[in-house]
Design brief:
The complex is a heterodimer of chains A (about 270) and B (about 280).
Chain A (H helix, E strand, L loop, with lengths): L1 H34 L4 H8 L2 H34 L5 H13 L2 H12 L6 H6 L8 H11 L2 H14 L2 H8 L4 H30 L2 H7 L9 H10 L3 H29 L1
Helix pairs in contact in A: 1-13, 2-13, 3-7, 3-8, 3-10, 3-12, 5-7, 5-11, 7-11, 8-10, 9-10, 10-13, 12-13
Chain B lengths: L20 H31 L2 H9 L2 H34 L5 H7 L2 H4 L2 H12 L13 H26 L2 H9 L4 H30 L4 H4 L9 H10 L3 H32 L2
Classes of the chains: A mainly alpha (about 270), B mainly alpha (about 280).
Amino acid sequence: MPASRTASRLGLRFFAVGYLSMLLLIPVGMIFYRAFEHGAGAAWAAVTTPEALHAFYLTILIAAIAVSANTIFGVGCALLLVRTKFRGKALINAAIDLPFAISPVVIGLSLYLLYGREGWFGGWLLDNGIQVLFSLPGMVLATIFVSLPFVVREVVPVLHEIGDEQEQAAQTLGANWWQTFRRITLPAIRWGVAYGVVLATARALGEFGAVAVVSGRVVGQTETAPLWVWREFGQFNLTGAYTASLVLAMLAIGTLLAMNAFKRKEA
Amino acid sequence: MTSVAGTRAAAPPRLARWPRLGRAALGRGLVTAYLSLIVLIPIAALVAKSTGGGLDAFWTSLTSPLAVSALKLILVVSVIVVVINVITGTAIAWVLVRDSFPGKRILNSVIDLPFALPTVVAGITLLALYGTASPVGIDVAFTRAAVVLALLFVTLPFVVRSVQPVLLELDREMEEAAASLGAGPLTTFRRVILPNLTPAILAGAALAFARAMGEFGSLVLLSGNLPKTQVPSLLIFAQIESGNTTGAAALSVTLLLIALVVLLLIGRLTHWSLRHAR
C-alpha cells in the first residue's frame, strides 16, 4: 500500500511538472535562446531602432495613463460598493466584470464604431478637431477598458475584511472624510491596491487585440511594443521580435515577483 | 473560504455612514459616468451597429459559412481545452498543495505567468518550440492543434487557482476516515475529495471557457491566417480590416452573449459553492 501511494504521488508530480515544463517553462526559456541566437549585439541592435524605441515608449506611456485612471476609479468604486448601499449596485458589479468576459477584438471594435466618422461620438469629435481613433486617446481608452476590473476586484475584499470600525472612530473624533481616507483607509488597503495596480499594469503593457483595432497600426506613430513584435515577426525580423518578446517577458516575470511580494505583505 | 471570481464571502451589512449622503451621490454619479463612458456606451454602440440593418441582416451575417465555421471551431476547441484544463488543473493544484519537493514554490508562482505575459508573446513563445523551426521536431504551426495549444497556454491558471484554495482548506480527517473504513485512494478521491472540489473546478472551467472563446493575441501568429484555423476573434479582425463592420458587429454581439451567459453561470456557481462548501 505505501509503495503504491508513493508511486502514484511521484507519478502525479512527474505529470504536473512535465505538463508545466512542456507548456510553459521550456517555451518561455526558448525565447531567451532565440533572442541571443545571433549574439547579444544583434539582439541589442534589433530593439534599439527608433521605431522599436518609440513602440516601447508608447506602450509605457499608455499603460501609465490607463493604470493611473483605473487606480483612482478602482479605489473610489470599491469604497462605494463596500461602504454604501444604493440601488443598482448589482448592475455596477456586473459591469465591472464585463471587460474580463469580452474578447479584446470586440472591445476594439466597439470603440472603433463609437469613435469612427459614422459613430455616435466620432463625427462630432472629428468636426471639432479631436481625433480619437488611430491616435493616442483611442489607444488609451482601449487600454483603460481592458484593465478596468483589476484594482476594484483586489480592493473590494480587503475593504470587507478590515471593516469600518476604525473609520467610524476617526470620524467620531472629528476627522473629515479626506483625513479618514488618507490616515485610516488608505494605509489599510495599500497592499490590495498595489496588487491590483501590478495586475492592471501587466495587462496594459501586453494589450494587443483592442489596441490592434483602434490604433490603425501606423509604424513609428501608433505602434505599441506588442504590435511591433507582431509586425517584425511577420517580416521575418526574428531576432528583433524575440528580443522584444524577451523584454516583455521579463516585465511579466517582474510582475510575478511583485505579486508574490505583495501577497506576502498582505497576509 | 476564498472563492474564485474575485468575490469573497459577503461581510455583514454595515451602516451606510461613510461617505455621507451628498458625497455618496456624487461618487455614485462619477463611477456610473466612468463605467458608461469606458464600457457601457461603446458596447451599446456595438449592439446598435449589429442590429442596425434589422434582425434579418444580423441573422444573415451570422449564418454566413465563415461565421458558422468559426463559431463551430471555437466551441469545439474551447470544450477540448476546458476538459484538458479540468484534468491537468486539478492534478497541478493537487501536487502544489499535497506534495512537497524542491522548487515547488517557484513552480507555484510560475502558474500565473500566462496572466502576466502579453498574449502575442505567448504565441511567439509557443512558435519558438512547436513551430516550423521546432528544435524538438514537433511542428503544429498553422493547424487546429496550434489553436488548442495556444488556448491551453492562456487558460492554464484558471482551474489551478480556483481549486488550490479549496484543497488547502479541505479537512483531511474526512479522507482519513474514508481510508480507515477501507476505501482505496481512488474511491476516497472520487467519493470524498472530488465532490468538495467540484464547485471550484466548475467555476475555474467557466472562466477558462469564457477566456478561450475570445482569445486573439496568442492566435494571430499561430493560426497562420488560414480558413481552417479562423476562430471568431480572428474573423472579426479580418472583417474590420476589410470594412465589413456590420458582420463583425453581429459576430461580436454573439460572442458577447455567450460570454454573458458564462458570466451569469459563474455567478450562480460561486453563490452555490459558497452555500455548499460549509
